Amino acid sequence: MITGIKGMNDILPAEIAAWHFLESQVREVFPPFGFNEIRVPVLEKTELFCRSIGDDTDIVEKEMYTFPDKSGHSLTLRPEGTASVMRAYIEHKMYAQNQVEKLYYVGPMFRYERPQKGRYRQFHQIGAEIIGETSPLADVQLLNMLCRFFGSIGIRDALLQLNSLGCPACRPGYRQALAVFIASRLDVLCSDCRRRHQHNPLRVLDCKVEQCRTACQDAPSVLDHLCADCSTHFATVRRLLTDLNIPFEVNKRMVRGLDYYTRTTFEMVSSRLGSQNAVAAGGRYDGLIASLGGPPVPGIGFAIGMERLILMLNSSSFPPSRPDIFLVTLGDKALEKGFSLLSGLQVDGLRAEMDFSGKSMKAQMRRADKVQARLVLILGEDELARNQIQIRAMDDGSQETVDLDRLLPILSDRLAAI
Ligand code: HAM
Predict the structure, then answer these.
(1) 127 and 94, same domain (yes or no)
(2) N or C end of the chain: which has fewer CB within 10 A?
(3) Is there an atom of ligand 1 within 6 Å of 301 CB?
(4) 3-state DSSP helix/strand/coil percent for the chain, to nearest 5?
(5) At residue 141, does pLDDT exceed 90?
């Protein structure tokens, strides 16, 4: 038996209703905020992710699916969507058409992480990016949309945590203070942190090793080093969130696992998710587009982990869909007539099934029961001779015989009443 790849899951028909629900809510909630969908490839040149996410991050150092193609070019399965969307934004000169571009995407991402509940090697994100707005109003609009989306799918217990990571004006001062703090604890840090601390001390604060976390508990906070502009930006975001009644808490220790962030960063966390508690995350990346060779255009975005969202939804709210009709036929003639009837019902948009193999009536009824058809149609030689058919409602067992040429309107009535 050839099995699937560890950490890459099949989404089976019994689970698909929840995915369709999430995708339809994205398409309902995001467009009123001005967002259009973009679809970008799952494969990109490796360099794109190294330059954007950062060479020293866990994602780039340890988690990327990277391989040479047949011409020897290094390609990578996207570990996230922001870098690809920014690459497309620059490549298609989208900045020349619109001063502000709001884009969303839904699709698979790939990270070679140790699989566990809520953490997979192929997972799916719903992402949204506002490109071209420096105003804190953009931050708040994006967060409002994120909260509105959570509300629309019935999740009310995710907590928004907020931080600011400063900008190129104030970050160097903070890095310096952090580097001094880390240097005093170097002997207890893991080898990754010891290696990264000099040129990227923020990564040490994001380390998952317990010992490193404990050692950095009293590390200086970026919030104490923000410049006046970053402080004002952050204060405005908090004030406007409060005005919109969006609850949040400031988490001054949050640094995020990607290097491109500036100013506002955030995570939506839930205690229901166990150790992988972030169901969505994002932030501002005002220098990213320029660093990828584009114009100096700012941006802010988020990505929601769909598998984690689904863990939070009540799966019993998404029963697999039932057929409207199961058609039972008796005898060869009825089988053929039944088949053309079935085809007509399907073309008319009813979800209709039948058995093709001429099984006994009992076996066919058993199958109708198993698939939980709402109505069973029974077509035997007698009904065929009279141009009639029997309709049986599976929920209450009621039965009636109707003329075949009146079948469709009667079926619509009966189905609407169930
Ligand atoms: P991220 O924090 O790396 O950010 O991922 C966002 C979300 O994707 C996480 O909060 C989590 O719900 C989900 N996620 C990440 N890795 C896994 C995994 N291995 N298995 C299951 N779910 C996972 C980003 O990806 C940024 N691109 C977000 C962003 C958009 N920032 C600005 N714009």
Answers:
(1) yes
(2) N
(3) yes
(4) 45, 20, 35
(5) yes
